[in-house]
Amino acid sequence: MKIAIINTGGTISCVGNPLAPMSSAAFKAASAIHLDPILKQTCPGLDLDYVTDLAFPESASGMLDSTNLQPSDWCLIARYILEHYDEADGWVVLHGTDTMDFSGTALSMLLGRFRADGTALAQLSKPVILTGSQVPLFHADQAGIITGMSFNTDAFQNVCGAVAAAATGLAGLYVFFNSHLMRGSRVVKTDANQFHGFTSPNFPDVGQYGITLTLDARNALPFPLSDAVSLDHPTARAATLAQLQAIFDRLDQVPVMQLNAFPAWYRPEAGTALLANLIRAVTAEGIRGLVLEAYGEGNFPSGNPNEPEKGAIARALKEAADQGVVIVDNTQVLKGAVDYNAYAAGAWLPGIGALNPADMTPMASLAKLTVLLAAQDFNGWTAEDLRYLMQVPLVGEMQDGSRLDSRMRPVMLPGQALTTFTGGATLNNLPAHGPVLSDAAGHILWAMLEQQDAAALPGRLLLKEDGNLIFYSRNGKVLWQSGTTSSGTGATLLSLRQNEGDKTIRLAITCQITGKVMWEKTVSM
In 150-189, which positions are buried (b, 16+ CB within 10 angstroms) versus exposed (e)? Predict the structure, then answer.
């Protein structure tokens, strides 16, 4: 098995005092002497290929501390993997820790393509494992000669774990750190000093390295559904490279920034606020995306506690949205999800066009929105398409509260529900009534069962891979089904969506391979 190792810079490949990055060639030479024999002893037959022809143009050494990494550098890493995809069975990317939680989502997005409904057009079929360390891997003497690996560091353990994870053949992008294998789009740097530098607060680990590396298949990213959407296929890979070039060309024209909620002055009587001034200033600078880091469950200061929509901050955000700025309302809290229905202090945000990212991290939101905005013209996505894509999981970066997935989350149990992003409509599997589609006020728009049988309920709703949506009684009897079975479908989605700008609610079953709608129910509010 051949594992390609890309060294981008960061602490793991630094030496000296003060620490400075080694060149990729020097890192390769040191690894051949000190690291490779141990790795090959652990994994017999392992072929390690250290990349030496990838350099970052803004750095004289070609290596880059991730503090100075910019979105165009994401593209350089992704391009190298795509252009050399056939040459390795897996990839390890050595990366600085400061922005690894941004790169985990950015690279996941850049190494794939998506339809406007969120289904995959191109997808990783091999593992890409990001890792780094809090302490350097090697040490050098006063003359700068590498004399060995540093004692008692996380660097050696993280490299070993990342290589072992790459050797599993998992599909998708992950981060390995401090014995934990995590989805790359879910990680957050949570400690600047200890070896447990990264955690995945809103999603369980995919694996853990103890005596051996153990994996939990339930948490792993899915493999491509077909050869046609695998990056092993030349056509899928060529289209992804073409998209990557378009993204690279557009990045500087669609900047995205984060804005943290913090206690600051506002004057309701004068209609002014510091945060409003900041929002107008960055809008004037040409930002195209704004990731809010709100309090709690998505609460952001409005500038007027009594009438939020009239507050200076709310008005500044509305002006930005009217000018085409995409606003995403994340929580700055480490763990948990956004819920606009929890507090009045956040309930006004959907009215100014803010998007709900559920439990996505602010770092993931910034990276995802940056890539989507830069890819929008290439893919022909409308503004509504882009807003929809920001609110559904594409690379495992957020919970899926508006869809059932026949491969990942096929069942809705009694008491569970699907909800549109704004909370305008809900499909709730009520224990006494079965699945019922309701508006925000609780008015029933459609009921799956025309008559309820108390002895048969509660029941469960199941989406099968062939597209058939079935509601079973408590004893396994079919009470309702969509009848949309189709052989060879492979995987399907049930999505609940409210079209922006109208009162239409749409419940639809879609084939993930073709993007074809197999069944739908449309109701007006």
Answer: beebbbbbbbbbbbbbbbbebbbbbbbbbbbbbbbbbbbb
**Residue 380 domain-assigned?**
no
Q: Is residue 394 part of a domain?
A: no
Residue numbers of the domain that contains 70: 2-250
Confidence at residue 111, expressed as pLDDT on a 0 to 100 scale: 98
Q: In this structure, is residue 11 part of a structural domain?
A: yes
Which of the 8 DSSP states describes residue 160? H
Q: Is 28 helix (H, G, I), strand (E, B) or coil?
A: helix
Instruction: Read off the pLDDT of residues 178-194 as tens digits, 9 standing for 90 and up.
Output: 999 999 999 999 999 99
* Residue 122 burial class via C-beta count within 10 angstroms: exposed 0-12, middle 13-18, buried 19 and up: buried
| 145 and 261 both lie in a single domain | no
Look up residue 431 and give its amino acid: P
Last residue in a domain, options 250, 276, 305: 250
**CATH number, residue 296:** 3.40.50.40
H/E run at residue 237: helix 234-250
Angle of helix 71-83 relative to helix 100-110, nearest 10 degrees? 50
What type of residue sits at position 244? Answer: L
The number of domains in the chain is: 3
pTM over 0.90: yes
**Distance from C-alpha of 188 to C-alpha of 254, rounded to nearest angstrom:** 24
Which tokens belong to 523?
A: 């109701």
501 has a pLDDT exceeding 70:
no
Q: Return the residue matching tokens 């409509």.
A: 425
Measured N-to-C along each axis, helices 71-83 and 234-250 cross at an angle, to the nearest 10 degrees, of 160
Q: Is the peptide bond before 18 cis (omega within 30 degrees of 0)?
A: yes
Rounded to an integer, what distance in angstroms lies between the CA atom of residue 176 and that of residue 353? 36
